[in-house]
Structure formats: C-alpha cells, structure tokens
Records
---
Amino acid sequence: MGSAVRRWRVPAAPRAGRLLLLSRLFQPLNLQAGGEAEGEPSCRSQRLMLQAGLIHPSSPGCFHYLPPAVRAMEKLVKVVDEEMREVSGQKLSMPSLSPAELWRASGRWERMGTELFRLRDRHGKSYCLGPTHEEVVTELVAAQSNLSHKQLPLRLYQVSRKFRDEPKPRFGLLRGREFYMKDMYTFDASEEAARRTYDEVCGAYCRLLGRLGLPFVKVQAAAGNIGGSMSHEFQLPADIGEDRLVLCPEGHFAANVETLNGEQTSCPTCGEKLTQRRGIEVGHTFYLGTKYSSVSNAVFYSPENKPQLAEMGCYGLGITRILAASIEVLSTEDSIRWPSLIAPYQLCFIPPKRGSREEEEEGAALLERVYDDVAEVLPHLAGDSVLDDRTQLTIGKRLKDANKLGYPFVVIAGKRVCEDPPVFEVWNQNSGAGVHPHVHEAVPGRD
Ligand code: ATP
Ligand code: MG
Ligand code: MG
Ligand code: MG
C-alpha cells in the first residue's frame, strides 16, 4: 500500500450521509448507572438501557427514548407492520384524548378506577388519556352507517402511546406509565369468522416473536377488565417477570395461575407434573364477541340487508416492553444483546487509535475502503453502521463499549491491518465468534 495510502481523517460529515460518527450520536453512556430510582429495585434491562444511553428517566414510569432506542423501536414497528400486513391489518391512528362518555357507556370510566389518567378541557368536559382503545375504535366503526358484510373482516391497528397510572411503575420500560403499544381491533360477521381472525392474529404474534428470536410461551389467560370469553397471553419466561406461569413440560398446557382450579398440580392432558415459572407478558389477545359492539351499536349489513352486531377481537402488543424484555432475556449481566432485526445499528467500525502512526494511516485508509466496499455490496448494512471515531481511546476500550452496546457486528482495524494482505478483525457479537481476515466472510447477507 505504501505511499498510495490516504491519510486518515474523520470525515467532516457522515460519509454519504449515512455513516454515523459515534462522537456525534446523542447516546450519553453512563456506565455507573444502577437503575435504582427512589429505592426501587432495578432489573438487568433497566440498568443496561440506562448505562447504554438508550433511555433517560423523566418521572416515575416516564422515560425519554434516546436516538438509538427510537431506532430500535422503529425497526421493531417495521417488523410488526409486516406481520400485521400478513393478516390484512390496516394501520390507522386514533386520538389519545378519549372522551369520558365513551368510557361511561362501557362502564369502564368507573371500573378502571385510579389507573385512568383523567383530565378536563376548558369547558369542563372530561377525558382520559387512552390506556387502550376498545371504546374509541368501536365508536369509529359504529359511525360507518353503511358497513357491509362484504367489508368484513375489518382489522384495524395502530402503534401509539398508551397512558396508565400504574401503581408501581418499575423496571424501566417493562412497566411504564406512558408506553408504546401496538393494538389491533377486529370486526367480523360471525363468531366463526371472528375465531378464525383470532387464530390468524395469534399466528402473527408467534411468527413475530419467533423472528425476533425470543423464547416465548402462549398461555391461556384471564380476560381482566377488558372482558371477553377467550384470551391468551404471550409471555417471555424470566425471573423478574411479574406474572406466574404454570407450564406442562410436554407443552400441553400453559396458563396463568389465576385461571387454574384450586391447587391443580398435574397436566389435565398428560398428567405430567406442572411447573411454575415467572414471565413477562409481552402480548395479549382477546376474543370479545359483541361486548363493545353492543354498547356502541357497531353493526354491519348482512347479505339479507339486516343490521347485525359485529363480532370483535382485540390484540395488544407491548412495543416498548418488547424492547426492554428482549434485552432482559438475551443480554448478559454486562452486555446488551439485541435480536439482530432490531439492533439500533448492525455494525460498528473501530479505526486505529490516534497516534499509532503506521496503523493509523494504513488501517484507517483500509477501513474506509472496507466501508466503501460494504456500502457498495451491502448498502442496507452500510446505512446501518456507526464509526467509533473516538480515536483518542484505545481499540480495547472502544471494543469494550461496543461489546456493552451489543452491535451484532464489529469491524476492527487493529495491528494486523499492516500485514499483507491486511487483516481486519470482524466480530459477530451475537455468536461470540471472532477474527475473520476479511469483512466479506463474516457480515450478514454474504454467502
Ligand atoms: P400487565 O399485566 O403487565 O399490567 P396488562 O395485562 O395490564 O399488562 P394489556 O391491557 O393486556 O396489559 O395490554 C397489552 C400489552 O401492553 C401487554 O401485554 C404489555 O405488553 C403492554 N403493557 C401493558 N401495560 C404496560 C406498561 N405499564 N408498560 C409497558 N407495557 C405495558
Ligand atoms: Mg396492567
Ligand atoms: Mg396482564
Ligand atoms: Mg394483559
């Protein structure tokens, strides 16, 4: 390479507007953060997310989601959108300010008690900040006076902030007072059709959690104050989970504890001893029947042109809870591990330390070339990379941070970059596998 080597310089602007410089990223690392706010116990995901500059506490149960966290969340929402499209979901957005009349009509203005954030407008009219949207969406559909059976099934969903005055907000994003939920509401012409919808949406949830590589169980659940006759939860087994699960070792049976009769200890199907575990509820599905459509008179017109109440289902998925729960179950005590699909950045480039003259020149120039190469061959990956330009720090120190932050891939221009041919280290942090001589052999999407 010799004299042809270009001098290393940190690009004045991100290369091609895509390579992000770590020194410019608003991601305040706070490696001492313990996550113990006001004497509350913390958990692994809360601690790691605070340390890694992903979240910043604002008030109990309310957090700033910092840029890398928003990036992860947007990726998660993209995957959720894909799965919702698979089941013909149509995305909309409903107001967060929800008029009290709707909640009074369903009886939940009273029943939700102190969990509802209530407020009034300047005219004295009462509202709540939506904790969920059954009433609101049913009223929307009821307002369509000519809904035909031909338009069913209708499957509407949104991704929005939800507000619940949780008595004990804790564990960071796992239990917030303001959090993101994906909520789908479905309208069908018959009970049979609604049950088909129910199975399809449950299938979408299983696929989604599978694609994220999360170990989950689907369990029978109590319907709580949302109501309805059939309900399942999607749970990630974890010691800090707030729900108790009862599981059959053969997978025949899985419930929440409260749905069990008395002290049932063996599986009703195979008689195997039931085991108990704790779990984090990440999703919840309900078959609602006409519980809400009968309140708002949400009807459709049958083939005989008769108005009939729509059969409904509702399907919640905790977006911010899934972010935190993924970190909770996949990470080690010290290092974040993401589902690859939602890692904020796929790749971190680590150029040589400033002042290590020979490597600096050779390594940096080569790394630029590697980057250009990646950009050409795998544009999606290059646009999903950061460059750790904190070159005043040793490679070791920056690698330690990269390990904590959990980029799926790290490309390092270390000492061996001056060899002929130059050797880069490429780490696959999820598998822990290391040292590949060429970036092409290790980056995802390459044969
Ligand atoms: P939990 O039992 O944990 O209080 P929930 O049963 O009250 O949850 P649902 O009404 O079923 O919650 O809402 C659907 C999904 O929204 C939940 O499965 C969960 O993933 C998410 N969720 C609910 N409450 C919170 C919260 N306080 N913070 C973050 N996510 C939440
Ligand atoms: Mg709750
Ligand atoms: Mg629950
Ligand atoms: Mg629930």
Note: DSSP finds eleven helices and 21 strands in the chain.
---
Amino acid sequence: MVKICCIGAGYVGGPTMAVIAFKCPSIEVAVVDISVSRITAWNSEQLPIYEPGLDEVVKQCRGKNLFFSTEVEKHVSEADIIFVSVNTPTKTQGLGAGKAADLTYWESAARMIADVSKSNKIVVEKSTVPVKTAEAIEKILTHNSQGIKYQILSNPEFLAEGTAIQDLFIPDRVLIGGRETPEGQKAIQALKDVYAHWVPEDRIITTNLWSAELSKLAANAFLAQRISSVNAMSALCEATGADVAQVSHAVGKDTRIGSKFLNASVGFGGSCFQKDILNLVYICECNGLTEVANYWKQVIKVNDYQKNRFVNRIVSSMFNTVSGKKIAVLGFAFKKDTGDTRETPAIDVCKGLLGDKARLSIYDPQVTEDQIQRDLSMKKFDWDHPIHLQPMSPSAVKEVTVVWDAYQATKDAHGICILTEWDDFKTLDYQKIFDNMQKPAFIFDGRNILDVAKLREIGFIVYSIGKPLDPWFKDMQVMS
Ligand code: UDX
Ligand code: UDX
Ligand code: ADP
C-alpha cells in the first residue's frame, strides 16, 4: 500500500489530501500539522475550513484511509510520498521584505524530513514557492541525507477556494515537474499513478521542475491581470457611460480572450494573487528584469487603485464625510463560499472607511468576529503570521461591530457596501432594509450582484462598479 503524508493541513493540504484519499482507497493518506487546534478541528464535526462538499468527502474516508494527526515525524518517516503544503507568506522583514516569499516554514519542514527519514522519499512541493525553491530543498535534503535518496517534484495546486472539491474532482490539468533523469522520471510516474485514479491521462502535464514552479506563478499572475484589466476598464466605463458588464461580455466572446474571470469588482483578494505576483516581481528584479517587474507590479497597483476608488466613491457621495455615520458592510471574505479573509479587499475598504471615522457594522455568513477584528487591527504584511499577533487597536474595537444578520447590520445605517458576492445577499428584502435605514439611503455594490433598477425603484441611491452612474454621483463628483 502506497503511503502519502502531507505536511500542512490548510486550505490546500486538507482538501487535496481528502480528495486523494476519496479517489484512491488503496492509498493511505496522513495529513499532519504542528497546529494542534487545526488537527483537532479536522478530526471533529466542525472542520477548520468552510468549503462546499468537503464535509462529505472527509466523512467518507476519515479513519479509513485518511488520517489527521500532529505526529508529524512518525507519519513523515513512514511515507513514500511527502507533500509539503505549508504556508509561504510574503516576507515582512529583511532581504526582499514585502515581496519575496518567506520560506521559513518550508525550510523547517525540509530539515525535519531529512532528520526523520529512514527510506527513500519523493518530496512534492504543493505550496506555491519561488522558482528554484526545489533546488534549495534538494540541497537541504541531500546534504543531510545519510544515504537516503530524495526526488523532488513540483506539483502546484490550482484549486480555487469555494470550489476546491469540484476543482480537485475535475481539474483542468494536473501539473507535475521533476528532474529529467531516469530517477526523476520514475518519481513523476509514481505521482502520475496517484492522479491517474481519477484524472484522464491527457490532463496530466509533465514538465521540468522550473517550468512547473513558474507556471503556477504565471497562471495566478495572468488571472489577476485579467481582473485588473477589467477593473481598469470599469473606471473608464464610469467616466464615459459605458457599462462594464456589456464591455466584458463583448470582449469575452472572442474565443482568443474567453469569457471567464472578467467580472469587475472592488478588487481581487485571496492568499495567492498578490503574494504570487510580488514573488514574481522579486524574481524579475533579482534577475535584472526591471521592465518585466514593473509590468507585473502594475497589476497590484491597479488593484489597490480599485479599492481606493471604491472608498473615495463612498465618502465623496455621502457629502464628503462618513464621520460618525453607520455603514453596513455585507461580506468580509475575499470571495463567496469561503470563510477565508486573507488579503480580502474588505480589509482595505473597511480601513479606508475607518480612516474617515465611519462606524462599521459588518456581517459575513462565514467569518467570525475575532477574525474580522484581527484583520482590521493588524498591519499590512502581518496577516499571514497569526503567531505574531499584535494587540488590537482600541479604535478598531470601538468603531466596528460584527453582527450575525444582514438586517441588523443595515438597521439605521446611512449606507451599505457589498464586499463579497454571497448568494444570500441577492435575495434579501431590500424594501425592509430601505425602510429601516437613514435617508438618503446608499448602496455601494462592490460585486455587481444586485438588481440596480429594482433598488432604484425602492428609493436607494445605487453605485455599481463600472456601470452608468446615478446623477447623484456625478453631482457629488463635481463637489469633491
Ligand atoms: C488584430 C486583431 O486580432 C483583430 O481582431 C482586429 O480586428 C485587428 O487587430 P491583426 O493585427 O490583423 O488583427 O492580427 P493578429 O493575429 O491579432 O496579430 C497581431 C500581431 O500580434 C501580429 O504581429 C502577430 O504576429 C502577433 N502575435 C499574435 C503574437 O506575437 N503572439 C500571439 O500569440 C498572437
Ligand atoms: C486563485 C486561483 O484561481 C487558483 O487557481 C489558485 O490555485 C489560487 O489562487 P482563489 O484565490 O482561491 O484561487 O480564488 P479566485 O476564484 O481566483 O478569486 C481570487 C479573487 O479574485 C477573489 O477576490 C475574487 O472575488 C476575485 N475575482 C475573481 C474578481 O474580482 N473577478 C473575477 O472575474 C474573478
Ligand atoms: P495554504 O492556503 O497554502 O494551504 P495554510 O496557512 O492554510 O496555507 O496552511 C498551512 C499549514 O501548514 C498551517 O496549518 C500550518 O500550521 C502548517 N505548517 C507550517 N509549518 C509546518 C511544519 N513545519 N510542520 C507541519 N505543519 C506546518
């Protein structure tokens, strides 16, 4: 029986291993983590991450061929294939701070593998890492090898949160990079055999190590670039009277461009896009490729611009001040169907509004009050380091309330911001909400999910990203 161990029971490691166990009953899969609370949660009824369909998959296999454990060393030493899926946040200090990936967790995992291994291993990079990380890991392992042979593979994960199970069940492709030696090819084949249990052969792509590592960064950069492109267009649409939804529909019909990932929004978030582009920028700079670095940097700058633009629109339309006004924030997660708030645009929008002294009432169906307070009180770049939590700033606590209901959040509010496209927000009773709000009542739809005409009929002043503006906003623009 092949034994797999995955180090890191997070958003990537957890769902990916659950699906491998589900699809390969003949393989024993152990997911290990240094976080006792995370492992306890994986072994409980309340899994540590919200992901549609995940519960069923875990329930089917847990205790049979899927195990969650804190006995990291035991499971690593017993495994044939070790996936490393630890966090690789952006460095906050030292060389490359703010751009380079922090490989501390990766390095400590690699050293631990070298310490406890008693048989040959295939070590698989699952977390997104800078190109050439595999080489560094290989060096750590071989310099501490004690006669044991290691093969390093890069097998980047392309799942998106909120659709992880579906993405894992029917992936567009599985990418495996390895050394071009006979041993490297054998290792690739061993991993290919795992995926071949459910993924058609023609969807499994094999490349060299560096291509696989770079492809992951490139894919995320291309996806983020599409969003920044359409968001840049949204600003121009508002200025000209064009409708961004009509523009993206027309543009996306060109099969060379394609229709997906062209939704204008308040900005992209998530643990990958910004981090991976910063990483790409850093790699370009290290290689003296300044123009290439600047090209990709612009994707992040447009994203920051979009978030600022949204905040400015709110403040300017509400008579140039939100001081003391209650603003309801509906949605805090970086996208729907997840409770994840890493790099969510909601953090920057809320901070922008708090900077103008607004009072915020926040509701998200999946994000806890603790998480929101933590996100709003932490400095940029600290978010991925829960261990180094800073004390909450008293102003964040005072001006932010987190509630468990959209009606409560919007009661007596001057304005509503939609920051996550949760389906539930489409079917709220907006007449009831309007009746309980201060007038004029504003809605700022940062995800373009609401029926603008209907809301205007009720009496709301509505702003949607990249859509023809209400006369109100044009008047206020002139004022500000
Ligand atoms: C383009 C648009 O494709 C067309 O829809 C529009 O109506 C007019 O402009 P055209 O300029 O005729 O058409 O040719 P196109 O095939 O788009 O190629 C433009 C240039 O891009 C060429 O120099 C081509 O060699 C280059 N190209 C194209 C690449 O370098 N790489 C590619 O992958 C595709
Ligand atoms: C992304 C990649 O899609 C995935 O392949 C990779 O493995 C990890 O990074 P994820 O961050 O989970 O996945 O979610 P994704 O669906 O890509 O959304 C990222 C952000 O872009 C979200 O904030 C989303 O709201 C935003 N977005 C997405 C838009 O603003 N417009 C769009 O058209 C699509
Ligand atoms: P991702 O979104 O990439 O899956 P997460 O932060 O959700 O990232 O998950 C990474 C997990 O890796 C965390 O639960 C963390 O505790 C775990 N981890 C980090 N370093 C180690 C290590 N050396 N050994 C075991 N687990 C680790």
Note: The longest helix spans residues 209-240.
